[in-house]
């Protein structure tokens, strides 16, 4: 049984230049306790997927179609009250910028006190701070930091606090959206170590969003590859990384910097499409070295190939 099922999700943003289809019918599931990597270039729809799951999309975004099933209930249909209960306690999110989860004028400890209060835990302040300190220590932050303000911490420590907050209520799923992207290489490696520990010690599933296939290979059990709002490949990390079937996955892997090399990912030749006017047929065809007439005309549907899902006419 999967923990979360996204079915045929279509999300559009209203912009001054017209509607942008950020998700073009994405279907995937997250299993209990797994890390599902979601990888793709900028603009492929990764953050939109994460935000849609938590119903945090901006007002001018519209879910045109689809379902997000959690414990059999469609999160897209829940009322505000039920949503508030689910956010934080069942599903939480960590962003690239830790200030998205931290209030600059609130001490670190009070973030936890408030979170426990909001969810009706009924702890005394002392008890809440004791638990917060325990969480900080598990995240590798000294408990003395409880009385600090966010700006007194390093970027890495702030992100550790944000991860601690996301895990504080023992949620079943954490959405981690590019959470190492703003950090330098050394701190990124430390946060990856922390995530590996979290994976071992918590039974939380993680939707690990990144543009870096190298990080996915380090951490994820399965990986979903997205291109221009479409899921193009999904499978176990070993299979996808060892034997990519979609030309876009191959290109992404070729762009991974070799160990010891520069951290900057080599860009894939060509540009991602203008999403106000995406290519007909397969959205990757203008950049695909193997594209044929069929790819220009006909959109490939994701098909199950022995547990691997691939959307390519020629995979
Ligand atoms: N707030 C917004 N208003 C209008 N269009 C948006 C908005 N957010 C995203 N989009 C558009 O939706 C598409 C998907 O964006 P999204 O942020 O989900 O991609 P992403 O894969 O997370 O990219 P990145 O790696 O840059 O974070 C893009 O074409 C983007 O321009
Ligand atoms: Ni994003």
TrEMBL record:
Superkingdom: Archaea
PROSITE patterns, sorted: ABC_TRANSPORTER_1, ABC_TRANSPORTER_2
UniProt catalytic activity: Ni(2+)(out) + ATP + H2O = Ni(2+)(in) + ADP + phosphate + H(+)
TM regions (residue ranges): none
Keyword Transport among UniProt keywords: yes
Keywords: ATP-binding, Cell membrane, Ion transport, Membrane, Nucleotide-binding, Translocase, Transport
Protein name: Nickel import system ATP-binding protein NikD
């Amino acid at each position: 049984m999967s923990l979360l099922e996204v079915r045929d999700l279509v999300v559009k943003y209203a912009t001054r230049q017209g509607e942008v289809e950020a998700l073009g019918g994405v279907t995937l599931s997250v299993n209990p306790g797994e890390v599902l990597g979601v990888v793709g270039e900028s603009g492929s729809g990764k953050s939109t997927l994460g935000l849609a799951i938590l119903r945090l999309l901006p007002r001018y975004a519209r879910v045109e179609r689809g379902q997000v099933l959690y414990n059999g209930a469609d999160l897209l249909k829940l009322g505000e009250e039920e949503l508030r209960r689910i956010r934080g306690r069942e599903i939480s999110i960590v962003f690239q910028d830790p200030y998205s989860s931290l209030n600059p004028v609130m001490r670190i400890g009070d973030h936890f006190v408030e979170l426990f209060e909001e969810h009706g835990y009924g702890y005394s302040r002392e008890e809440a701070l004791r638990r917060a300190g325990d969480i900080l220590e598990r995240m590798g932050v000294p408990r003395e930091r409880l009385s600090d303000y966010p700006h007194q911490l390093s970027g890495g420590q702030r992100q550790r606090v944000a991860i601690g907050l996301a895990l504080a209520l023992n949620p079943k799923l954490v959405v981690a959206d590019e959470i190492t992207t703003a950090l330098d290489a050394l701190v990124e490696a430390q946060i990856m170590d922390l995530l590996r520990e979290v994976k071992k010690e918590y039974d939380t599933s993680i939707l690990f969003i990144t543009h870096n296939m190298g990080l996915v290979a380090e951490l994820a059990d399965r990986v979903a590859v997205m291109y221009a709002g479409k899921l193009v490949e999904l499978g176990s990390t070993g299979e996808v990384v060892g034997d990519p079937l979609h030309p876009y996955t191959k290109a992404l892997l070729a762009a991974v910097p070799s160990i010891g090399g520069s951290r900057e990912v080599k860009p894939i030749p060509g540009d991602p499409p203008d999403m106000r006017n995406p290519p007909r047929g397969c959205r990757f065809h203008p950049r695909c070295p193997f594209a044929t007439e069929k790819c220009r005309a006909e959109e490939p549907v994701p098909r199950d190939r022995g547990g691997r899902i691939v959307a390519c006419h020629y995979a």
